[in-house]
Structure formats: C-alpha cells, structure tokens
Amino acid sequence: ETENNVTVSVAPVPGGGEKMEVRGRGELQLGILIENLRREGFELCVSPPQVIMSKDEQGNTMEPVEEVTVDVDTEHSGLVIDGLTGDRRGSLVEMKDSGSGKSRLVFHVPSR
Description:
Residues 61-112 form the Elongation factor EFG domain. The protein is an alpha+beta fold. It has helices at residues 27-39, 77-85; strands at residues 9-12, 20-23, 54-55, 61-62, 65-73, 91-99, 102-110. It contains two helices and seven strands. Strands 5-7-6 form a three-stranded antiparallel β-sheet, with helices on one face. A two-stranded antiparallel sheet has the order 1-2. Strand 3 and strand 4 (61-62) form a beta hairpin. The longest helix has 13 residues, at 27-39.
C-alpha cells in the first residue's frame, strides 16, 4: 500500500512481534486501508487512532493545527466564534466583512 499511496507509512513496532504502526492523514484513509486488508484475508486488531505530537527546540509539546475558513452571515458570526474558540480551543486569526451582510472568519484550530 505504501508504494501506491505516499501519504501512508508502515513500520514495525519495536519489540512488538507482528505489530505494525500505520500512519496516515486521517481516519477515513486508514479505514479504507483496513477494509482493503480485510478483503484480502488479513485478520486485524486495530487500536484507536492517536494524534502525533512533537516537541519544539524548547521542549514544548506541539500538536497539529488546521486553518479553518468560515463564511457566515454577520449576525451569526458570534456563535461561530464561540463554537470554535471554546470547546475546540481554536484562535481567531482574521475577521473580514465581505459586504452584503457576510463575514469571513479564519481560525487556527487543533486537529484533535
């Protein structure tokens, strides 16, 4: 699969016997890989996906962040801001009035 799909990587787990660690760009992509392996006759035990964290030069934990752009009626922009900055822990990066009662909101939101 890694020969056909460069966004998937497979590596053995050290000391894990037959265990393999599979990395991909999302649950859908990994779900397709799992289904293809089952159709080919493989039996699998799959653990829940995990977010890959990394450390910066100072040792601070960094996590993947996505840029989210939302075009919304200006009267509803407060609800969108509350939703993405509250539970999702995103930060509002940019807010533009697009005219005709619309606003464009740009957020940076953790992927998890």
